């Protein structure tokens, strides 16, 4: 006798995509995530913080050095110098504005993260680790 098998559909788990007709969920690509039941293809996975979607490959890639992205989404990373002139990161995948440090030859005008700017090192002084030091 034939056994009557009933198929049950399950919600696609978080951080996975589930193509129609495929029995098993597939993990979202590196740097991407998805809410439960939201993704049917890899491009439906959203880029996480520190990653941006590349139009050419439709994949999520880490923000390059000098850029950051604090929120998930498929929008581009922000350039440090656009937020704070004369600042950059030396790492890929930065996830916060706090990752942007003053460039060499500049010092931090304040230690208040929301209001400081990067100022040029004064003549005769030297600047290292965002701090200005008096000349010899």
Detail the topology: elements first, then pairings.
Blueprint lengths: L15 E2 L8 E2 L4 E2 L12 E2 L3 E4 L4 E4 L4 E2 L9 E2 H4 L3 E2 L12 E2 L3 E3 L9 E3 L5 E3 L2 E3 L3
Written account of the structure:
It contains 1 helix and 14 strands, in the order ββββββββαββββββ. It is mainly beta and about 140 residues long. A hairpin with a 4-residue loop joins β5 and β6. It is rod-shaped and about 80 Å long.
Shape: rod-shaped
What is the string of SSEs from the N terminus onward?
Answer: EEEEEEEEHEEEEEE
Q: What are the segments in which pLDDT stays under 50 over at least 5 consecutive residues?
A: none
Strand order of the largest sheet: 1-2
Number of strands: 14
Distance between the termini: 95 Å
Number of helices: 1
Mean pLDDT comes to 85
Q: If you compute it from the alpha carbons, what radius of gyration comes out, rounded to the nearest whole angstrom? A: 23 Å
Helix-strand category: mainly beta
Strand content: 25-35%
Largest sheet: 2 strands, antiparallel
Helix content range: under 10%
Short descriptors:
single chain, 136 residues, two-stranded antiparallel ribbon, 14 strands, 26% strand, rod-shaped
